[in-house]
Write a structure and sequence with these properties.
Helix content: 40-55%
Shape: rod-shaped
Number of strands: 5
Order of helices and strands: HHHEEHEEEH
Strand content: 5-15%
Mean pLDDT: 81
Radius of gyration: 34 Å
Distance between the termini: 76 Å
């Protein structure tokens, strides 16, 4: 074979040598470009999937917020109607104010939202006037940041993080308030936000999620963390 190579003209030898060098260079360059393009495409896909997932997450969170807010507002306004009705009974002479407040308190404390949600009332000074825990009655809570916000707002929706004494971490809590001025009661419906997952209606955002397809065949989907077993 060496003898055959020696018999080839120098011009042909150079042509073969340079051809091999060019072919090797093209192969190396092509492999490098392929790797770079693959990395760019993969990063773009991951970025797009992350963006789409975050969009879906925000849809679910917004839907949950709306559902929780509407439910709590309905409860708070219903309790405000109870206070107004009893106050009218006082004005008509059917009840004393003390009796009306006692009946309103009984109605408020009979309600429970989720496992820990309750109805309570503060006055404009941050004094607890209605609460299921007797130890908190007539206690000045105006030093707490969320109570200060309640005193200032008196009505509407607000959220804050709260940690019970025996809990290790804080949990997001929600409050919807209405204000009954004749008794100076800030009627507050309070509960942990994670106890209202059943209020989220998938139909509220189902079509918007399905419209977030990716490429020609990509599609979004959602899974429940609940594990079901069959016996």
């Amino acid at each position: 074979m060496l003898k055959c190579l020696q018999n080839i003209r120098i011009r042909n030898r150079l042509f073969i040598t340079y051809s091999l060098i060019f072919m090797l260079s093209f192969a190396v360059t092509g492999a490098f470009i392929f790797y770079q393009v693959r990395t760019i495409v993969r990063d773009n896909i991951q970025s797009e999937l992350t963006r789409t997932t975050e969009t879906i997450r925000n849809m679910v969170l917004n839907s949950a917020d709306v559902a929780i807010r509407n439910y709590m507002r309905a409860v708070a306004e219903k309790n405000l109607d109870v206070a107004r009705h009893l106050h009218r009974q006082v004005q008509r002479g059917f009840l004393s104010e003390a009796e009306a407040k006692k009946q309103a308190t009984d109605v408020f404390l009979s309600q429970k939202l989720g496992s820990a949600g309750r109805v309570y009332c503060l006055n404009s000074n941050g004094i607890m006037v209605v609460h299921h825990k007797r130890s908190l009655l007539d206690v000045d809570l105006s030093g707490l940041p969320f109570v200060q916000e309640q005193i200032q707002s008196k009505s509407g929706f607000m959220t804050y993080d709260w940690r019970e004494p025996l809990e290790k971490v804080s949990r997001p809590k929600a409050i919807y308030m209405t204000y009954f001025e004749p008794w100076d009661w800030i009627i507050s419906v309070s509960t942990y936000r994670d106890e209202f997952t059943d209020l989220v209606n998938i139909s509220d955002f189902k079509q918007r999620i399905l419209n977030l397809g990716y490429g020609e065949s990509g599609y979004p989907f959602a899974l429940s963390p609940e594990i079901r077993t069959t016996g």
